[in-house]
Amino acid sequence: MLLPTKILAGSVLSVCLLSSACAVEPELNACQLDEVALSDAIARSEAWVDGYFSLVETLAGGEHHGTSVAVSACGQIVWQAGFGFADIEAQTPVTIDTLFRAGSVAKTLTSPLLVQAEARGELDLDADIRTYFPAFPPKEHEFSTRQLAGHTAGIRHYWGDEFASNVAYETVSDGLVIFQDDPLEFEPGTQYSYSSYGWNLLSAVVEGATGRDYLELMQTDVFDPAGMDSTFAEGRADTPGGQVTYYLYDQENQAMVVAPPVNNSIKWASGGFVSTPTDLLRFGLAMEDGTLVSPEAYETMRETMRTADGAATNYGLGWAIDMIPRQLQRSAQIYSEEDVARTTAIFDGMISYGHTGGSMGSTTIFLSAQDDDTTFTVAAMSNSGIGPAYAVSVLGEFVAASQAARAVE
């Protein structure tokens, strides 16, 4: 059943619910969700998005940007929707095919390359990175690919306005010039300090270890086997159109303003892809079912790393861990204490993982919650710095629907 485009509180909404047109063939019994429960979860989810836009309109003089969201449960995509506007001035609606910047979710998308190369014997995650990329200037301490992936290598993050770089880089190694001569910020392994530049370097290490181009590897070893046909590197001549207009919130003037242009070719592996929520879910499903990495490797990737003193970093091999508490804190900025308490209770006893992504004028949340036998995932993207804080609440609705179905059995 393909629901028609309709108006929801001033937002244009297009929805795909369990539709063959969306290449979804659900087995409802396996998912322990019936169509009535799904419809109820979707209606509640639309209300969460509506509340999010109500806040945005209050902040921005009645205007709002766009957002897109998709949810998977029990190994299949069960909902996809686009809300609001890809371009505010032109009133262009967001659809499920609209492309958004995925931001740092690129790190998670890149993570399979590490264990794939390790499984082929091409990469030792604990060896000095200069074993594979000797062109990188030597530092006072050696550090490993695993430490780069876990943000414990000591490579710095952005300085000043580097986040807004609009310089085009042809290759992965070309973009390293910005930070490659800077000293490490600490002895590797002793601290956790988030670094997108560390992942830029990591992609050069992968190229050195495999002898293949990073973007080629992403296409042939991640995107193609996962069935991801709507994820592309930014800043290339072949990057398709169809992207949104990106906005920033001007707090002083209480308005949405068009974000400045950037060229994200500097950071493909750390934040340089455009995608859709549906494609991000395809990636998540391909990780779950063993298409991209073995189940054992996937489990290891989602284990927290630790600093030398034993402190947990809540970050694995490109995966953030225990995400739900942080997302609930963001949700509390929009929704009532009672609503947040209800969502909190839904996730009791579940583990969570994924990644968030902040880009110039765009925000992404990729979040999974797992109990003993079921994984639920939401991917939500917006073309504004005001991120889709509704995501955790939406995910909770589908978890609650499944919990209710199981309770009846």
At the third CATH level, what is the topology name of the largest domain? Beta-lactamase
Number of domains: 2
Which second-level CATH architecture of the largest domain applies? 3-Layer(aba) Sandwich
CATH top-level class of the largest domain: Alpha Beta
State Rg: 21 Å
CATH superfamily of the largest domain: DD-peptidase/beta-lactamase superfamily
Can you summarize the main beta sheet? 9 strands, antiparallel
Tally of individual helices: 12
CA(first)-CA(last) distance:
26 Å
Low-confidence parts: 1-30
Instruction: State the shape.
Output: globular
The mean pLDDT is: 91
Strand content: 15-25%
In N-to-C order, the SSE pattern is EEHHEEEEHHHHEEEHEHHEHHEEEH
Helix/sheet category: alpha+beta
Keywords:
409 residues, alpha+beta, Beta-lactamase, nine-stranded antiparallel sheet, 12 helices, 14 strands, 18% strand, globular, disordered N terminus
